[in-house]
Amino acid sequence: MTTRRTVGIAGALVGAASAGWAAGALAKRYAVGRIRLRPDLEANEPFGELHGSSHDLITSDGLRIHAEVDGRPDAELTVVLCHGYCLTSDSWHYQWRALRRDYRVVLWDQRCHGLSSRAPAADCTIDRLGEDLELVLDKLVPGPCVLVGHSMGGMTIMALADRRPELFGDRVRGVALISTSAGKLAELSLGLPAMMSKAVNMVLPATVSMMRKRAALVDRGRQVGNDIAFLALRYLGFGDSKLVSPTVVDFVESMIRATPSEVIADFYPALMSHDKLTALDVLNKVPTSVVVGERDWLTPPDHSRAIAAAVPTADLTMVPDTSHLVQLERPGVVNEALLTLMKRAERGEP
Q: CB–CB of 257/224 below 8 Å?
């Protein structure tokens, strides 16, 4: 398929989607209104309002990485939380609140996300994220720690394992990999029939490229498309869309919307080319927990099973009726898995 034809198809898809969105705007607004009238148990949850002491770190390529330190300063173990693609450290709201009671907690915004600085496209790589995590450990973690990563954050931990395997077992005492993958994301079906999935995967790179070139226009459209984004995220990001809190959906949607289109496009190639399966053997030195939603279509359960197969000592938790944002959709299950992991790390279990 020629580049011109690919871009043409990509443009047609975007145009058709835009026309469909405009035609259905009133219906979507009505649907969103009905959803928001339902009881919302999380309506008063203070999302985004947890804070610790603020720190700015400077990377080897001159970027500013924002981090926060919270919890018990005298705790033997520090837990380091690494967020996912298009999110921020606030996405760990429930885990942050649970872990800071007994542990020292370090959270950081990955480069180009949240309050951290933007990087050139060439420096938006998983290996760079692994180097950034090493900086966080060097500057903010005085002793042994447990690393926890969601989605791209899990890939960041794998990159560190590949880069500095000697850290695992002594400095790094445990690892949790949540809704993530060790590679082959470019082969995802996205929950679509085979032929449709193949067509989408062929067109998607050109669409992402066009998204970057016209980032200002795309971002303006994203700012006014909140109802559409709400419905899409509610159905695609969560397993049981009828039960998920509208407040939680709004919270996640606001983080995604705050991520510039250029950043989304810049990290896309890194996610698609990510391959750290051979680095996973390092994790057999430490207690490891792997958690995934059974209805996760972004990093499907098979990817977590592959990680668990490469790390036979790992505990694999499959969460029913749950999708990619499992730490927000089923926080109790994730918190229990993390607290169990912390206890194993404290006991020095393999």
A: no
Tell me if 115 sits within 8 A of 63, measured CB to CB. Answer: no
* Ranges assigned E (strand) in 194-311: 288-293
- For the sheet with 288-293, list strands across it: 53-58, 64-71, 104-108, 78-82, 145-150, 172-178, 288-293, 315-319
| Residue 220 scores a pLDDT above 60 | no
Q: What is the homologous superfamily of the domain 53-184+271-347 according to CATH?
A: Alpha/Beta hydrolase fold, catalytic domain (3.40.50.1820)
Report which residue type is found at 115. L
- Average model confidence (pLDDT) across the chain: 84
Give the separation between CA 292 and CA 182, rounded to whole angstroms. 13
Residue 147 is inside which H or E element, if any?
Answer: strand 145-150
Average the pLDDT over 56-65 and give the result: 97
Q: Are strands 78-82 and 172-178 parallel, antiparallel or unpaired?
A: unpaired
CA dist 207 and 211 (Å) reads: 6
Name the burial class of residue 312, with classes exposed (0-12), middle (13-18) and buried (19+) by CB atoms within 10 angstroms of its CB: exposed
Res 73 pLDDT > 80: yes
The span from the CA of 272 to the CA of 166, in Å, is 27
- The residue with tokens 């148990």 is 41
- Indicate if the pLDDT at residue 25 is higher than 60: no
Burial class (CB within 10 angstroms; exposed 0-12, middle 13-18, buried 19+) of 163: middle
Q: How close are the terminal C-alpha atoms of the chain, in Å? A: 50
Measure the CA–CA gap between 28 and 49, rounded to whole angstroms. 30
**C-alpha to C-alpha distance for 69 and 168, rounded to whole angstroms:** 22
Whole-angstrom distance, CA of residue 132 vs CA of residue 127:
9
Query: What does the domain layout of the chain look like in residue ranges?
Result: 53-184+271-347
Q: What is the pLDDT of residue 172?
A: 98
